[in-house]
């Protein structure tokens, strides 16, 4: 018998995919939906769920315990919260008091949150443990391959993205003809791509490189890619996307590849170590 799954749902389409998967496999589940982030459309009365602010995480843990949740997946995008979102219940206030300065980076908060959930007797697992087919595959994923200039840009992007991730800043970099047009900060990948569209140079278009942070726990906040990424990259004049093999998620893979093929763009799964060794 499968263990009951608790889903902490942010934005995007993956939380719904996970719910659909649970229903298809008849796995019991309960959703904690983050206000201002999770998609309301699929959380109907038939879906067991509860809405919470980020500051109500303590109340959410209590609900999971009442629902006899055994495994927990945290999935979906979370926008930077407003002050009202952060006003904590007593349980969450105690959590922030305990982690102190570790709250300065996203990864610090998430790692501490994992420990807090597991202290309640639940196991935190990654979405890839439930739906492994979402992980980025290795090699060229469509009809088009990166040329010599694109490979050089990928190499440069990997070097920068690796350091960016090591400093717990972001996961994505846009490079064109060896020049770094932008790095991901608080705005997220889609807005990074749009911003870089205003900096593109004449000639061969740039590439987006998106990697998991070196110290990042595979169970939380994996780099995610999908049709929207391809659409934004095309509008920004990019020629392709390089993703971290086995360390990122592809949403609607077939549709993303189909669109990339149509737009003459490449999608490639890479091992960062291979590209950092290129001459």
Q: What would you say this structure looks like, in words?
A:
This protein is of the alpha/beta class. The protein has 2 domains: 126 residues, Rossmann fold (3-Layer(aba) Sandwich); 142 residues, LpxI C-terminal catalytic domain (Cytidine Deaminase, domain 2). It has 11 helices and 13 strands. The strands form 3 sheets. Strands 6-13-11-9-7-8 form a 6-stranded mixed sheet. The chain has a 5-stranded parallel sheet with strand order 3-2-1-4-5, with helices on both faces. α1 links the parallel β1 and β2. α8 runs parallel beside α9 and α9 runs parallel beside α10. The longest helix has 19 residues. The radius of gyration is 19 Å and the shape is elongated. The mean pLDDT is 87.
Keywords, separated by commas or semicolons:
279 residues; Rossmann fold; single chain; alpha/beta; five-stranded parallel sheet; Cytidine Deaminase, domain 2
Weakly predicted, low-confidence segments: none
Shape: elongated
Give the helix tally: 11
Q: How many domains comprise the coordinates? A: 2
Q: Got a strand count? A: 13
CATH structural architecture of the largest domain: 3-Layer(aba) Sandwich
Compile the SSE list and pairings:
Elements (H helix, E strand, L loop, with lengths): L4 E5 L4 H12 L3 E6 L14 E4 L4 H10 L4 E5 L7 H4 L3 H10 L6 H14 L3 E2 L2 H4 L8 E2 L7 H19 L5 E5 L2 E5 L5 H8 L10 E4 L13 E2 L1 H9 L4 E5 L4 E2 L2 H10 L3 E5 L1 H5 L3
Helix pairs in contact: 8-9, 9-10
Short account of what is shown:
With 279 residues, the chain is α/β, with parallel strands linked by helices.
